[in-house]
């Protein structure tokens, strides 16, 4: 089966510019996650969607980050304006259903590596 | 809130050496515990998991046992291979529907 698709693979921008990342989850997966992975650290959850609704965005810096999943399938994450500390790998993950058991398996994309100069 | 702490890396071993990567967790209630692996140039993959105390997760020769008394989930492998070189992440997941909480990751480098 096709995995979680993300694009672009790499992005280099200057601070204060805007950037957008795209994610297409595995077909039929209701739950979609965006994680931020700063070099040398583990992934940190930014936002979790269940279909097209937000389940958890408590760690999303809402003054500059936004995300949407309008049709409950693919999703975009935007940063506007970017700061130097936003340099990281942005990972998208999906699972069949987030409301199920605590052992629900997540499938991760390869990520988008963002460098802010 | 929930958190995961894992040993600092990098861990450098020779082929066929014994591997232990320590992981401890803090949580309210009884989380499910996971080890994820990230091979160079690839995305995160689930390596193994355990959902309750005393469960042992295993895969590809790796094992980890859910120890409630020590709040630990240490990853072990009896004989590592060069192909095991990767970054390993311990993670926990609490209530149903909540997201994974990851540790900082431990880089393993195995030489022949």
Distance between the termini of chain A: 37 Å
Structural class designation of chain B? mainly beta
Measured on Cα atoms, how large is the radius of gyration of chain A? 14 Å
Approximately how much beta-strand content do the residues of chain B carry? over 45%
Secondary structure: helix percent of chain B:
under 10%
Q: What's the shape of chain A? A: globular
Overall residue-averaged pLDDT value of chain A: 91
Portion of residues in beta strands of chain A equals over 45%
- Helical residues, percent of chain A: under 10%
Order of helices and strands of chain A: EEEEEEEEEEE
What is the tally of beta strands of chain A? 11
Which structural class fits the helix and strand makeup of chain A?
mainly beta
Describe the structure.
Chain A is built from no helices and eleven strands. By secondary structure, chain A is an all-beta fold. In chain A, strands 2, 4, 5, 6, 9, 10 and 11 form a seven-stranded mixed sheet that branches. In chain A, strand 4 and strand 5 form a beta hairpin. Chain A starts with a strand and ends with a strand. The model of chain A has no long low-confidence stretch (mean pLDDT 91). By secondary structure, chain B is an all-beta fold. Chain B is 0% helix and 49% strand. Chain B is globular, with a radius of gyration of 13 Å. Chains A and B meet through strand 5 of A and strand 6, strand 10 and strand 11 of B.
